[in-house]
Amino acid sequence: MLRALAIDFNSYFASVEQQERPELRGKPVLVVPVLAETTGSIAVSLEAKQLGLKRNIRIAEARQLCPDIVVVEARPEVYIRYHRQLKDIVETLAPVKKVQSIDELECELSGSLAVPARALALAGEIRAKIVREVGPCLRCSIGIGPNWFIAKLASDLEKPDGLVLFDEADLPGKLIERNVQLGDFTGIGPNMEQRLRAAGITDVASLYAVSNDRLRRIWGSVEGARFHDWLHGGLQEREATKHDTIGHSHVLPPEKRNAADAIAVLHRLLQKAAMRLRHEGYYAGGLQLSVGYRDDTDWSEDLQFNETQDTIHFTHALNELWSRRPRAHLAKAPKQVGVILHRLLASNLHTADLFEKSKEESRTKLFTAVDTLNKALGKNSVYFGGAHGATNYAPMRIAFTRIPEPEIEEIDPSLGRRVKPKKAEQKTAEGEDVFPPDEPQ
Q1: Residue 101, SS3?
Q2: Percent helix, strand, coil in the chain (nearest 5)?
Q3: Distance between CA 186 and CA 190 in Å, rounded?
Q4: Phi/psi at 170 (nearest 5 deg)?
Q5: For 227-286, what is each residue's pLDDT tens digit?
Q6: How, if at all, do strands 282-293 and 70-73 pair?
Q7: Are the beta carbons of 285 and 302 closer than 8 angstroms?
Q8: What per-residue confidence (pLDDT) applies to 333?
Q9: What CATH code would you report for 12-77?
């Protein structure tokens, strides 16, 4: 039985740029976080991939391999706008069960949509409607299967514009016919593959034949049992990702690589994280500060306290941590800074300190007013003085596990106004930025 359809938009960021800018179509394109020759790319167009370029390649290296490469600076707010439009289009044809990432959607198949011929026709309808309503550059690979795990695998096997269907009766025969490797499965990284091979599991046939209990032992957790169920077409629900931290980091441009500017940027990052914390309904009981230096050394320190949403409290904690920097580090030039709010507690589980309750209530009103003004008038319309001089730094980033909301973090500069929200996107824990660390010289 078919239950899931996975949509993977091919070379998503670069494809959006080509759709927005016709002069880029048919050309090898590199999308980068900043225009600096030592910066790593975050996306390459299909044309660039055909020439052997891969994501994370440095601009300078890309120019050597492909002198005609076109380098463009990333525009996260545009990619989010397209993501929302594409999701809305897909939902007119099939229910979107989950947003897996900014370029991956999971659709639920039931009733007539679960019939193979109808599911294949649906895939064609999705593509046709995207071309009509968005444009021809937003190409996608579609996988169909008994669950998202198999559908996701199917969507990865043929790119670009692939369409692969695996029904339960196809398992594992068609996977073996297509020479699927262990590393092709979601959940099997290099370390897990090594553990499987050490246990004598070297291919799809032996993986499919192993028992539930043995996979659980190999994984060392219940994830092995879940993997076994998914591999056999089961529908065991994936464990929800826990929201453990909210944080931001930023690579400082050369002119900001000094202590005064670094602490200002840190305050900007902290205020951004605190606004997200309140918007997502959490309190934080810890703050971690990290600093990376030009000589490739780094330092971090952590401070814990009673759970709060209070930006002023966080600011005092940040200043305290900053004062703890080792004496040997004071003369070093900071290159990258970051803050993480952790020990998160959902708002409904928070109990105000009896002796601080009135102050907390008044501060809550203050921060609600500040957040409302920034949402309505644009980011940094109101900010705490520690971030003065750094309000234009720490731009929005798109992580694999979290799609930012421009309404909370940024203004769309191409529109000159705040983007109007549509349906709230599903968000999970803050992951590593898609944008790799850049080193502008």
Answers
A1: strand
A2: 40, 20, 40
A3: 11
A4: -85, -5
A5: 999 999 998 666 555 668 999 888 888 888 999 999 999 998 998 898 888 888 899 999
A6: unpaired
A7: no
A8: 92
A9: 3.40.1170.60
Token pair recorded at residue 183:
């590393």
Q: Where in the chain is the domain with CATH 3.30.1490.100?
A: 246-409
**What is the DSSP code string of 155-178?**
HHHSTTT-EEE--GGGTTHHHHHT
Q: What is d(CA 382, CA 88) in angstroms, rounded to the nearest whole number?
A: 33
Element (H, E) at 99: strand 96-101
**According to the CATH classification, is domain 246-409 in 3.30.1490.100?**
yes
CATH 3.30.70.270 range(s) for the chain read 4-8+80-231
Q: What is the pTM of this model?
A: 0.68
DSSP-based three-state secondary structure for 144: strand
DSSP conformation letters of 385-437: GGGTT-TT-S----BTTB---HHHH--BTTTTBPPPP-SPPP------BSSPP
Q: Are strands 29-32 and 43-44 parallel, antiparallel or unpaired?
A: antiparallel
Identity of the amino acid at 257 = R
Residue type at position 120: L
Quick one: which H or E segment has residue 61? helix 59-65
Q: What are the helix (H) ranges across 51-109? A: 59-65, 76-91
d(CA 49, CA 30): 10
Domain 4-8+80-231 has CATH 3.30.70.270: yes
